[in-house]
Design a protein that fits this description.
two-stranded antiparallel sheet; alpha/beta; 2 domains; elongated; about 35% helix; binds 2'-O-acetyl adenosine-5-diphosphoribose; SIR2/SIRT2 'Small Domain'; 8 strands
Length: about 260
């Protein structure tokens, strides 16, 4: 599976408009989705040709009932995704968000991504709404599994999930939020606060259809923030945005940082 690589050049006048909003005193909240990592070679979910959910039924891979019925199938799919991520590196978008944070009084980064690429790029305190795929937890007690038998240099292999070690019948499962499960109250509360108290809300690479993440931009807008979207495709959020950049995240951030550097 190959994710989309977007080559559209961002509209210079819109980059100028975005740069103008990035005053040093700006309180910026960023929400990222799978499109943020597309330029790192990580798959998205809903892109029509190659998104995961265009090829697989999420009910077979991203629900607790699927794990209980077919633990090996579900575990193996996550091992395959872990292997993709183990071989990936942050892209210019991830890296430029770190550089942008150094210019602003406040930048809160909220992500739906489970790949950890923001942290790898150097972003601290990332609010991970949907968990982190590289962590495992017990499917019964939900305790984290500290001792992994694998190592960053060792490939993630398909197969049955290992025992969790926390419960006699417990199996390891990825620490991601499956459909029908609740988000961490702490993470979503932090995301809500950051959305209610920002001057600019930037939605990047998300189809804006999965709740509660999709509501954060609307929450920001209702509290007076300017809302901008970076996405090569239209989304349900687009109609509510003050500024839209129809281009990929890496290209947009390259153009944005060049504009800010030229000031
Ligand atoms: P989606 O796959 O739904 O949306 C990805 C978005 O990224 C689309 O709107 C694309 O147009 C856009 N995109 C593609 N390439 C891009 C690029 N280079 N730069 C910027 N944007 C690009 O992914 P999410 O919105 O993140 O849940 O999906 C939300 C959640 O649904 C995921 O977190 C996942 C999934 O089920 C869990 O894993 C719990």
């Amino acid at each position: 599976m190959m994710p989309h690589y977007i080559n559209a050049t961002p509209d210079p006048s819109r980059i100028m408009a975005l740069a103008a909003l990035m005053r040093p005193e700006c309180r910026l909240t960023i929400l990222t989705g799978a499109g943020m990592s597309a330029d790192s070679g990580i798959g998205t979910f809903r892109d029509t040709e190659d998104g995961y959910w265009s090829q697989f039924d999420p009910r077979d891979l991203a629900t607790k009932s699927a794990f209980l019925a077919h633990p090996e199938r579900v575990w193996s799919w996550y091992q395959w995704r872990r292997e993709q991520i183990r071989n990936a590196t942050p892209n210019r978008g991830h890296l430029n968000i770190v550089a942008l944070g150094e210019r602003l009084q406040s930048l809160t980064l909220v992500t739906q991504n489970v790949d950890g690429l923001h942290q790898m790029a150097g972003s601290d305190e990332v609010i991970e709404l949907h968990g982190n795929i590289m962590r495992s937890k017990c499917h019964l007690s939900h305790q984290f599994i500290r001792e992994q038998k694998w190592h960053p240099d060792v490939a993630y292999l398909p197969g049955p999930p290992p025992p969790s070690g926390h419960h006699p019948d417990g199996l390891a499962r990825p620490d991601v939020v499956w459909f029908g499960e609740s988000l961490s109250p702490n993470q979503i509360e932090q995301a809500i606060q950051a959305s209610c108290h920002c001057d600019l809300f930037l939605s990047i690479g998300t189809s804006s259809v999965v709740e509660p993440a999709a509501t954060l931009a609307l929450l920001a807008k209702s509290h007076g923030a300017c809302v901008a979207e970076i996405n090569p495709q239209e989304t349900p959020l687009s109609a509510r945005c003050d500024l839209i950049i129809r281009a990929g995240a890496s290209d947009t951030f390259d153009a944005l940082m060049s504009t800010l550097d030229a000031d």
